[in-house]
Design a protein that fits this description.
By secondary structure, this protein is an alpha+beta fold. It is built from 10 helices and 15 strands. A hairpin with a 4-residue loop joins strand 13 (about 315-320) and strand 14 (about 325-330). The relative contact order is 0.20. Residues about 1-10 have low confidence and may be disordered.
Length: about 350
């Protein structure tokens, strides 16, 4: 049997080496085309990291190279971690997805009380958002923003439509804190980061002083720039208040996200049945599928499932469960939108399905 397996193993190694080399070339070409300063990539195939690379500069002005240990923000891709956290509470019997949020939270406006937990996760709650184009609603503190948003009318009937909304995940963080009797960030550190070996992952934004954190950039014009002026690379600053961390606060590395995805696949975070449920699109009142499942954008339901974490127009991971494949790409350029070129990388590895023994 060992003799018969040798050519198969050689073929698998050859195919994987070629896929990795093509992925390296594709990434470097994409960085050049999109003018991405720094990038990390990790490819997971059949629960094993088969490619881990970093390229370019984490800090352009000081010529500081991007390394595999450098922290990058994943912004709204944090919502996938929150989805896992909620499924952990479901598994532990501490939360029911079909329960109204009023079972777990007090002092809600009457119009909010019938929203189900799963509708927060899938952005089908109909809630007004706590964030607008200028940041927190009202431009003051988090407390001021909550006071203001609770006075606003619903944006839609509960369950009627998908509408991306940060208030949903701020409320989920409150549910997690109340049910576990610890802050959201501590729960994630204990129940996910520690389990998946995410030793450097933390929380914060561009105003926080984080060691070994990549600097964020963009080519978008500044508010004070003359119209039609030449593009230039500039710093990008963003504020992520603590109460919104469940929707966008994680700072991590591509390798650590890859380790988390492997832990998820192997059942170390939640069981397989809850993973399937977490990746099933939420139904709207019409019976149609919504755009999201529980914390995860659903890019494709069939014939091959694709679910993702996407954040800040600069970070993304896409999971192809039926192919045993996941791709993580973190960049420091707002507007890089790696979810758009990750499918090209995935296409290099999908033909390897079944070549390598599990």
């Amino acid at each position: 049997m060992a003799l018969f397996s040798l050519p198969r193993l050689a073929l698998a190694a050859s195919g994987l080496d070629e896929a990795n080399e093509q992925a390296r070339r594709l990434i470097q070409q994409t960085m050049k085309e999109l003018r991405i300063p720094g990038l990390q990539i990790a490819v997971v195939k059949d629960d094993r990291v088969v490619l881990s690379q970093s390229y370019g500069l984490a800090n352009v002005e000081n010529r500081k190279p991007a390394t595999k240990a450098m922290l990058f923000p994943i912004n709204s891709a944090t919502k996938s971690f929150t989805g896992v956290a909620m499924m952990q509470l479901v598994e532990a019997g501490q939360v029911e997805l079909d329960a109204p949020i009023s079972r777990y939270l007090d002092d809600l406006p009457q119009a909010w009380t019938g929203i189900r937990v799963r509708q927060l996760l899938a952005h089908t709650s109909g809630l007004p958002d706590i964030v607008d184009e200028n940041g927190l609603v009202g431009g003051g503190s988090e407390a001021d923003a909550w006071k203001a948003v609770k006075q606003r009318p619903m944006e839609a009937a509960i369950g009627e439509r998908f509408a991306y909304n940060q208030a949903n995940y701020a409320l989920l963080a409150q549910i997690i804190a109340k049910q576990t009797k610890m802050p959201y960030e501590r729960y994630l550190a204990q129940r996910q980061f520690a389990v998946a070996g995410m030793r450097s992952s933390t929380f914060g934004d561009s105003y926080d002083l984080l060691a070994d954190a990549a600097t964020m950039y963009s080519y978008f014009p500044r508010k004070t720039d003359a119209q039609g002026g030449a593009e230039r690379l500039s710093h990008w600053f963003y504020d992520m208040p603590r109460g919104l961390w469940a929707g966008g606060g994680i700072q991590t590395t591509a390798d650590e996200v890859a380790g988390w995805l492997i832990a998820l696949s192997k059942g170390r975070l939640i069981g397989a049945a809850h993973v399937r449920g977490m990746w099933t699109p939420e139904k709207l009142n019409s019976g149609a599928d919504g755009s999201w499942a529980a914390g995860w954008p659903v890019l494709q339901s069939s014939p091959h499932r694709q679910v993702a974490g996407i954040g800040g127009a600069r970070a993304a991971f896409v999971v192809y469960p039926d192919d045993g494949l996941a791709i993580v790409v973190l960049t420091n350029l707002v507007g890089a939108n790696p979810e758009r070129f990750i499918p090209k990388i995935a296409a290099l590895y999908q033909p390897l399905q079944g070549e390598r023994p599990h």
